[in-house]
Amino acid sequence: MRKEDCFYLGKIVRKYSFKGEVLAKLDTDEPELYKDLESVFIAMGNNLVPFFIEQSSLHKGTLLRMKLEEVETEAEADKLMQAELYLPMAMLPELGDNQFYFHEVVGFDIEDENYGHVGVIEGVNDSTAQALFEVNRDGKQVLIPLNDEFIVRVDRKAKKIIVRTPEGLIDLYI
Fold it and tell me: CATH top-level class for 102-172?
């Protein structure tokens, strides 16, 4: 399995027991969707290695406690610390009309109701307190906060997101 065919699920952050159990921090708003997984791909070097899950449960609401097959000791679990978890794209849950996955909207046009065509989404920066659309407008970068109140409509067929930004926001960049 290639990383390009998968989505990032989270990262193994701690050992849980001396029997090889691990805790993973999931990168999702709905961790309960992933508590009954049969398997997961773990990034090891440049490869994704499949691991079958013997048992799993949610721990403190946001962590996934997992007992992986063939991981029986603390030493074996240590080798998995900070490893990234992936699942095939086909396992992504369906979203509502104005909801989207960040990777899905790269390449979409952004159009502001008042300003008109703004540019093309090159990426989504979610490393800040507020996620931002990174929009290319004729070689200039325009940052638009990814705020539910700003998003009017997501048109997947036309590959376009219609937004209503505060007056003057786009003018700051142009």
Answer: mainly beta
